[in-house]
Amino acid sequence: xxxxxxxxxxxxxxxxxxxxxxxxxxxxxxxxxxxxxxxxxxxxxxxxxxxxxxxxxxxxxxxxxxxxxxxxxxxxxxxxxxxxxxxxxxxxxxxxxxxxxxxxxxxxxxxxxxxxxxxxxxxxxxxxxxxxxxxxxxxxxxxxxxxxxxxxxxxxxxxxxxxxxxxxxxxxxxxxxxxxxxxxxxxxxxxxxxxxxxxxxxxxxxx
Length: 207
Known about the structure:
Number of helices: 1
Shape: globular
Number of strands: 18
Strand content: over 45%
Radius of gyration: 19 Å
């Protein structure tokens, strides 16, 4: 049986398509789980700013519309803000790259939050008119002091068995899995890592 060149070309396009799965969407954000295999490309969001969190190391090439290609090496945990600008991102390396992309859908705001409310152990990565982004790490078998989060996307780089202690004495399970991308409502609590693995997440709070 002979297969036409057109059909083979169609199969090639399907096989080389980047994998992107929408994990959540609300009035503030749309979050996606993305995988780029070597040589694959994905369009940059030209209408909304976004935050990208990399799960894996690799090499990418970013080409803004009308601009020149820029080669970047990324590693697990690298977190990048990209303004709304059309273009293309390409996996220019030899290994698959897995990352989370969070599009910020709101108009943003002028208020600056800084580290207000956050645990002193958190690392503020960046803040701008659209979002506040910070790194959270809780070693196995430890807890953090009471602190306050705003509504946020949580991107989990290393999962752990967790429990939240609320100011009114309630206890809530809060376990996260490695690779999970989820929406958490703002709250004041103490976080406990009850497991044997260290927690590592990136929190993205839209304005």
